[in-house]
Every structure is written in structure tokens, then in C-alpha cells.
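Example record

Each entry pairs one chain with its bound ligand, EPZ.
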Amino acid sequence: MDRILIKGGVPLQGEVAISGAKNAALPLMAACLLTDQPLELDNVPDLADIGSMQRLLQVLGVEARLLPGAPGRMTLACENVLSTTAPYDLVRRMRASVLVLGPLVAREGIARVSLPGGCAIGTRPIDLHLAGLEALGATIELADGYVTATAPGGLVGGVIRFAQPSVGATENLMMAAALAKGTTEIHGAAREPEIVDLARLLEAMGAGIEGAGSSVLRIEGRPTLGGARHHILPDRIEAGTYVMAAAITGGRVRLTRCRPDLLGAALEKLEEAGVSIEPTEDGMVASRANGALSGVDVMTRPFPGFATDLQAQFMAMMCVAEGASMITETIFENRFMHAPELLRMGANINVHGGTALVRGVSRLNGAPVMATDLRASVSLVLAALAAEGETEINRVYHLDRGYEQIERKLGNLGARVERVA
Ligand code: EPZ
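C-alpha cells for the complex follow.
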């Protein structure tokens, strides 16, 4: 298993290009199941999760391939659905596999998807996905660890009310509704930029969608949808991570091919903590404004609130800030796995339930560490970049799920980072 070795203490300098968003690409890929015409996606990041989705789609009958000589361009074509089952072995590797449920039942009248079960960051049920499909006329059965959704006569538009916003459920139901008869309304929809990106693709395929980016979505279903070409939006979480990499090392980094506005409330929190973010034509320049970082309280919220996917990285930064910071996680119940690892590097963190009190220390020290999810792992990378001495980060496959060529990108910014097999 690969490990990453980082010798800390180098202020990062230079330019980094931000990749296409993983969490936009995954539902966009699943949308190919809605049509027998080809989709062409640009700016597809080269990540393990994209490979997992590609394999799942291939099992279902999709020809999905990256075009040689055109980096980041993927074509997906599903002339005929060959299987309506998403097997356990693929779903357990990547929860986003559940995104094939809505498109499959909408097109084929039946879909069988392994229940994803819990994961490192929490129990993560899919009840909202299922209740939404029922509101569109599907019958749901759970047996043998699988959910089977059936709608032999096709789905019918309906009104869906979510008690809490869910990114995945909103995406699944938008795709299902795009092939349902009539109009669907989703109240309490998630508002993440990735939802807006999916709406843009579905519109290009022929669906009628109003309200994307707000909490009420109106979707006009069509009997068939067509092919389309789509450029995937930049990865706001990768961008936020490199902003914090610049800040924690006291460096100055130009991020290209991204958008500061996609950071939502994190932008203000970063600035409050002493990070300078200057917008540029195609991104932003991030640096430490003046002197030390300062402790700032944050609470994770659905977009446009502070993203849970940036919480671990922010905690790493707060470990070396002046003063204290109270970090409250409200989206997932178990998303502080990085805290005990950061403690091993000399941080001062007290966790009580969903809240972590971080008291800044003057320096962190390198140590062997590991983490059990993607964002927790990258927070250890940030801590390592600022730490004295060498840090060994194990279980690098978590990073490979969501950060394209992380050691090359950091290396280009001057970090002393090395991957060893
Ligand atoms: C998406 O997960 C992202 N994944 C996650 O990114 C991200 O952390 C999360 O949204 C929140 O922003 C992808 O886009 C592929 P949710 P998703 O449904 O859709 C509860 C990363 O590191 N819930 O919005 O699974 C759920 O348990 C990751 O890239 C239900 O109760 O998240 C959670 O508490 C990890 N019932 C909350 O809603 C449901 O049916 C929000 O989850 C669905 C969700």
C-alpha cells in the first residue's frame, strides 16, 4: 500500500490548476443512463472514485471511456441497459453508486441497488432517496441487503418534500423526474453547486428544470432525453484545500481554473481567520494576510453554509492558529476522525459529541498517521506541510479517491512530498 512522506516547513509558492469536481462528475456520469444517446463530459478528474463509477456503469451496459489524447474528456453511451442491478461489491466501495437508482428505475421501470450501509463518517441512510421515488410512483422493497424500486408503467411526476436537504437524494430524484410523466416539485432541495451543474446537463439533454440552486426545484419530465456535451464545474473542495495549504504554510499560491464564489461561507471564515483571497480572472490568489492565523469558530451547514467537506482541513489550520476555535459538525455524526491523528502531531483538540475545541499551538511535529476518509486524510497532509520534521501518511488510497495528482501538485508548489510504494 502506498504511503506519502512529507517534510514540512516549506511555504508553498506558485500556481496550481484545480480539477473538475468529483462530486459533480459522479452524478453527471450516472445521468448517461437516462438516454440511449451519447454524453460527452469535459474536465473529468482522474480519480479512483471516477474509475469506480465507470466500472459500475460498464456493468449496467454503458460504454464509458476516457478519450485518448484528450485529457479529462469522457464519452458515455448506454444504447441498451444490460443489467438493472448495482452489486454490493461495487456499491460498498463507493456510496455514490446509489445515484444509478433513480435513472435506472426511470428508464427501465426497475432497479436493484445494494444498500450502501454505514461508512467511516456516519450511518448515512438513503431513506430520502427512497421516499422521493415512492412519491414518483415507485414501489420500494428491501430484501437481502438490496433495495428494489419498481415502476412498471414508468414514474409519474409528484411533489417531494425533504425534511432536510440531501445532495445525493436531490440528484437521484432530479434525474428520475427528468424521465417521469409530468411535473415534479422538490421542496427542501439541496442547493450545492453540483446540483446546479447536474441541472444544466439535464437541461441540455432536453429536460425542463427551474430553480436549481434554490430549495424548490420544478422538473418537467420528458418521454425521452437526448445526448449532450458538458463541461464539469471546478472542484470547490479541492480549491478550498489548496487555499488552506497556502495559508497553513505561510505561502502564496495562485489557483487557476476555479471560482472563489463556490466556496460559500467558507470564504468569509477563511478571511476572518487571516487568509487573504484575491479573486483573479480564472481563480484566486491565496496567502496569509499578515502574520499569524487566528482562531475562528465554524459550524458546517448545507451550501451556501460552511461545507462539511472542508471541516477537517479547517481544523488542521486552526491547530496552528493563535487562540481557540470551536468547530461544530452538523452534517455527519462521525466526522472528527482526523482529531486523534492531529493530536499525535502535537495539536490540542478536545472533542465533545459534534463539537471540537481546538486551541492553537505554536508548532506541530511530524509523525506517522493515517485516516479513514478522504477529507480527514487531506487534513493530515495540510498539518504535515506545516509540521516540523517528517510525517508519514498511510492509506493513501483515500486521497486518490478525491485529489488528482496531489503529490505532483504539491511538489510543484515547492512541498517536499514523496509517494512510496
Ligand atoms: C454528498 O454526499 C457528497 N458526496 C459528500 O462528499 C458530502 O460530504 C455531502 O454530500 C454533504 O455535502 C457526493 O456528492 C458524491 P447528503 P451525500 O445526502 O449526498 C443525511 C466527500 O468527501 N441523509 O447531502 O451522501 C445524511 O446522513 C464527500 O467528497 C439522510 O438522513 O450527502 C447526512 O447526515 C463525503 N437520509 C445528511 O443527510 C438520506 O436519504 C446530508 O447527506 C440521505 C441523507
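The chain has a mean pLDDT of 96.
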